[in-house]
Amino acid sequence: MRDSKVEVTKEIEKLEHSAAKLTVTVAKKDVADSYKETLGKYVKQVQIPGFRKGKVPANVLERKYGEQIKMEAASDLIDKTLNDIFSNEKDNVERPLPYAQPVLEKMPEFDVSKDFVYTVTYDVFPKVEVKNFSGITVKEPEVSVGDDEVQEELKGLQERNAVVVDKKDGEPVAKDDIVTISIVEKDESGKEIASTKREGFVFTVGTAENVYKIDDDIVGMKKDETKDVTKSYAADDKDAELAGKTKNYSVTIKAIKVRDLPALDDDFAQDVNEKFKTLDDLKKDILRQVENAKNRRVNEIKVNSLLEQLVEKNPLEIPQSMLNAELDGRFSMMARQFQTTPAELEKMLSASGQKKEDMLKEWTGDAEKMLKSRIIVEALMKEKNISVTPEEIEAEYAKLAEQNGVSVDDVKKHYEDARSKEYLIDDVKEQKLYKELFAQVKVSKGDKIKFADLFKNN
Asked: Which of 110, 171, 256, 257 could pair with 70 in a Cys bridge, judged by C-beta atoms 3.0 to 4.6 Å apart?
């Protein structure tokens, strides 16, 4: 349709669930102009036997295509006026969410002698005034880190750098050994059930890697030894094929291996990273990393607690289109993790007896909480006009460099592209906001917990 402005009046009504109803009235002069313009296109483009192209009389076209011309003129008029309304920054009309197109209630009558009135409904960004901070108490877990945590991390490094070797001939299976077995189930008469035979099953004794739960039964066995094992499984065993049943197995030890752990000395530290000259250097770096991890997790727990309480005390409604977009985004991310497409992932789930709909339903509660938290954070950022200065970003670079044991230049290089730097700026702004908010609520000491327990249910 032509680029000139169309004269309209607007009436906006707020609906439940962050939706809006917009009623638009187009002056009859513009209705007539829209019809003439559409009719003019038909005159130029339509070819009817007996008339040259572009020479068909308008009244002939109206008799033949009258309703179609009206429908097209009405659609053009709706598209034109909605685009004008939503693109006008000065217009006091809430814009629809980008993933929620306005829905026309019904196609109105198009009469060139009357005003044209239509109504659309659409979802808008939820509004919330975060005013209620009363009674909010944030508990900060008390976590101390020291030599025990350093030793635990060292042990993990040892195991990751271990060499797996065969156990000496004649030495029996012990806890933490890596064993290879063949296993087959026997029926009541002691005959092997061929379909249950499994060769080359490898697991570490004493871990959850063994679905048969025969760890204790094979401790003390030697290579090439065979043993009959009877095993009764609990009714609530996670393996439905085993739950509540008693099985008779024949187990043969095929191989026994052990992890040859490297000595914890200066050479080990240098093998981990050439920047370490001594084992003490490595320990100091581990302690720094553990402290940083603790501080990040404690802050995350505090923020989550604060946001949960703010969401509870300052209720808001999430439009369905926003929730659907979040759930679809999570499903697409899951597909990328599986290196496939969402459509292929859905097929994979279906083949395994699962449904995408059930998965999205399971995610819904968490997705709603996350969206509400983000909306509250954005509302508070805007209300408090949170911003950061170049000096604050420089200070953040220095802080990150110290935390990660690298140079400031290395940190700056990591954030040199525009998107990464934008993420950093947003994070600094959020941390400034949380600092202000923690000053408005009560922060008290929480339970004393171990470092390892800090990350449970994360």
From this structure: 110
